[in-house]
Amino acid sequence: MKHIRDVYLDYSATTPLDKRVLDAMMPYLTDVYGNTSSTHRHGRKAEDAVEMARQKIAKIFNCKPSEIIFTSGGTESDNLAIRGSAWYAQKMGMGKNHLITTPVEHSAVGRTIGQLADFLGFTSTILPVDEYAMVDVEEFANACTDKTIIASVIYSNNEVGTIAPLPKLAEQARERGVLLHTDAVQAAGQLSLDVEVLGVDMMSISAHKFYGPKGVGALYLREGVNIIPSNTGGSHEEGHRPGTLNTAGIVGMAEALALAYEEQAYHLGHYRKLRDMLVDGILSRIPDSRLTGHPQERLPSHASFVFADIETNQLLMHLDMKGISASGASACKTGNPEPSSVLLAMGFSRAEAGGSLRLTVGRYTTEEDVAYAIDTLVEVVEKLRKLRRANEVHAK
Ligand SMILES: Cc1ncc(COP(=O)(O)O)c(C=O)c1O
User: Does residue 302 contact residue 293 with C-beta atoms inside 8 Å?
Assistant: First the structure.
């Protein structure tokens, strides 16, 4: 078989496990196998490791270790924050039933709020966003009423990379007695997670987005904020999240996060350089191409585009045949022929949104990879457009 290059440009979907993280995890996959809830020596060893990990993460979040809840990932953290605070307000008869979010959230937030509003007696406001997927602070403030329990706004958008003005939103939310949750799954490892600077009450992260293992995440829950657990079971994690703790995963997540912030300046420089190469190369060489998301206020590793007269799934297939792994809008949407609802909310037409591409770089991406990806994309887009024109002529 002909050798093709393997160019992975989908680091927003997931990242490979850093070998140093695997080394940190290994003892907890083998020798230290105790259940953190057991009182004997095996349990205590595992519990010590989990508590060390909690402290490491708390340092990065600038919060107390007791404000961190370990979960199975971003989806669970989002569900726990939103469902948990909504149910608490309902149970306590606080006279509040309103939820706020945006149309550009990950489905773990969007569908959770949708379900609460559709079946469970809550109301919701989906704020508009501008052409860059940015929420307007004044509109956010106006949407907060005395009935609002929680607002959930994504930190850095998974499809278009735009970074939300969280400190400004938090100021408005706090003045109005509204809890602010953010899905920081894409931001973690690149942007500041200091909850005092961000001003958020709850924040979700997922280890596999920052070179940690899959299936483990965390929720920051500000002291004094109450939630009802979305799962029922044991009294782990201060009663917030039942289930035996994933010791190795938690140790790995803490190590991965610590490494990401120790090496932050170095990695971000690398990402920005490669991302800018992608953006400049693609926009200058491919006619009728547009960058999606904010040109400056965007995740350093993230480039996203729409191409006129291109169909995303065809584009991804042809890129894959050339060894390039990319996404349409987000990994969750790949294979779904419906245009991205995020791009539609940003004002793109269905036809424009139908030709989207997300290229996200990472630690192991090289300049050669990027140059190859640009050349290949130029070639593939031209070929697909030619084919489309030929089909159109044929159909007449
Ligand atoms: C913004 C965002 N939130 C949540 C998730 C879900 O995280 P997990 O895969 O850990 O459930 C993802 C994953 O793609 C994401 O990008």
Answer: yes
Catalytic residue of the set 277, 332, 344, 378: 332
Render pLDDT for 324-355 as a digit per residue (tens, 0 to 9): 999 997 554 555 668 899 999 999 999 999 99
Residue-wise pLDDT for 241-294, tens only, equals: 999 999 999 999 999 999 999 999 999 999 999 999 999 999 999 999 999 999
pTM of the model: 0.96
- DSSP track, 23-85: HHHHHHHTT----TT--SHHHHHHHHHHHHHHHHHHHHHTS-GGGEEEESSHHHHHHHHHHHH
CATH of residue 304's domain is 3.90.1150.10
Two tokens at 240? 């917030």
Q: What is the CATH number of the domain that holds 108?
A: 3.40.640.10
Domain identity same for 315 and 254: no
Residue that the structure tokens 């569900």 belong to: 79
**Pair (116, 236) in one structural domain:** yes
- 69-124 pLDDT per residue, tens: 999 999 999 999 999 999 999 999 889 999 999 999 999 999 999 999 999 999 99
> In this structure, are 253 and 283 located in the same domain?
no
> Given 262, 278, 305, which residue is the final one in a domain?
262
- Ligand 1 centre and the CA of 391: distance in Å? 38
**63 is a catalytic site residue:** no
Residue 216: phi and psi, rounded to 5, are -145, 140
Which residues' Cβ are closer than 6 Å to ligand 1? 73-75, 106, 108, 154, 158, 183, 185-186, 206, 217, 331
